[in-house]
# Entry
Amino acid sequence: MVDDTSLVLPRTHSLQYFAVVTSEGTKTPEYVTVNMVDDVQYSYYDSTMEKPVLLLDWMNKTMGRKFWDIRIRYILHGHDIIKWSLRNTIQHFNHTGVHTYQHAGGCELDDDGTRRAHLYHAYDGKDFVSLDVDTMTWVAAVLQAVFYKHKREADTALQQITLDYHRQDCFQLLEWCLQYGTETLQRKVRPAVTLIQRKARESAGTDVICHVTGFYPREVEVNWIRDGEALLEDGVWSGEVLPNGDTTYQLRKTLTVSPEDQKKHSYSCQVDHASLDEKMDVKWVPEAALNMGFVAGGVLAALGLIIAVIIGVHIWKKRASGARSPDYTPAQTKEQSDASSNPTNSLYCSRCDPIAEKLMTQTE
# Structure
């Protein structure tokens, strides 16, 4: 039985950094790092630049120089450390040629106050070592990385700087972001839900895609429900939560329904999100979906015919004009058709969504 009460989905905020250094011999910058808060990039730096750049105006305006001065110090410090890591690893293995070393680290803060911090290293794209913040030790992912573990643990000064950041400073910076960036980081944007029907590729059934998009924050729960009460898992494929280009997110969940089940049961896509007072329930109506598909196809065909007639008349007029004026040179034509504004291309669409419309065109 499905509980209609809207769930309060837990929020997790994060402050993350990603860095890579490359040995000499490439045309790319030797060092590149990006910093992100809640999946939004807020700074960038590479070795060709004099200093890092801040990308979010609200940070600079509200938090002043204190936040940025701390981050710059850690960014430049990270540059030195990762170069040191690559140099020591190459020397230890007596490697030649082009090699890379990567850092990925940061901290996470849950709504209930739970804190987590992490730092992972990779050499040539493979896991190498990681930092256990709780025990103040390094963990070798492969036997060849034991030498690096011993080097880092022996350098007590460097070890203390690294631990201070992942135990204290990172969380302080994140809390500042949440305090001063409330309008951006703690806003709530309702999702738009579109149901798209197509013939299943590997069976005689029908695939029904529940496309949920335009929501913020990232946390969302999407389920397919049968007969208003049974939560479905079999026959359901879920994509990942992916970012849109406007700092919102999207998710697709696909249900495959056999012809027999389509006749016996009803299905709906249920969405729960922090922006909703109660769960959003969008029912799939197979007959309506098929009719809409036919209407969309008919409209597109009619538009194609009209456009063909217009182009034909246009060409005839140009030829006639050219016959009367030998010195006239016809200009090149620009032939475009815009059928994307047709509202019949999507079902249950509260906001027009180009990705959903693209999926609609994939129906077979």
